[in-house]
Design brief:
Strand order of the largest sheet: 1-2-3-4-5
Radius of gyration: 16 Å
Strand content: 5-15%
Distance between the termini: 34 Å
Length: 201
């Protein structure tokens, strides 16, 4: 296990490696966990003639979600991205961040990309604190409008996440520079058990 994999659940690494194998077999290209490979992942999904059947969705969800999540975790590792991976309870998987409050389910993102529509119950959309929501919405509204086809892609979800993260980092630096906040696993466990958590598309 490499230093970059420290603390990552073994199942996530196995799934991500399986995703790399799928894409290499189908496209002859090896994914390397960089954001530049996400268009290739989108191309692989399109080759499956989405929307795909529910059975195929369930088969592809763990490996594609693990790879997508690992691209994000490795790219944003300095901000403390980590996995919450409760066994076979796929609805409650999430990536969560230490330096600011943000979490979402990469496996849920896969279901939305494969189906081309929102998938309630899988936490695919970015969850943040109420205090940050207006600032994030303002930044998103100032971004170029995207089509539905573009929205339901790994590439666009990653680009949106980059924007959201930049806003949240800016807010933390502006309001909590003197005493930086850290959001532990316990904070996320408590927050995800509360009703009325806001969701950001």
């Amino acid at each position: 296990m490499s230093e970059a994999d420290a603390g990552v659940p073994a199942q996530i690494l196995e799934w991500a490696d399986a995703c790399r194998g799928f894409v290499k077999d189908a496209l002859g290209i090896e994914l390397d966990f960089t954001p530049e490979t996400l268009p290739l992942l989108d191309h692989y999904v399109r080759s499956k003639a989405k929307p795909v059947s529910e059975e195929v969705q369930q088969l592809l969800m763990p490996p594609l979600g693990a790879y997508f999540g690992e691209v994000i975790r490795r790219q944003l590792d300095s901000d403390g991205a980590r996995w919450h991976a409760p066994g076979e309870d796929y609805e409650h998987y999430r990536l969560e961040f230490e330096a600011f409050f943000l979490h979402f389910n990469p496996l849920g993102v896969v279901l939305e990309v494969l189906s081309g529509e929102d998938t309630p119950g899988y936490g695919a959309h970015f969850q943040t604190l109420d205090e940050a929501r207006p600032h994030v919405e303002e930044a998103l509204s100032a971004s170029p409008e995207v089509t539905a086809d573009d929205y339901y892609t790994f590439t666009m979800r990653y680009e949106t996440l980059e924007l959201v993260v930049s806003v949240l980092i800016g807010l933390e630096e502006k309001h909590h520079a003197a005493q930086p906040r850290r959001f532990s696993r316990e904070v996320y466990r408590a927050a995800t058990g509360q009703l009325g958590q806001d969701s950001l598309s």
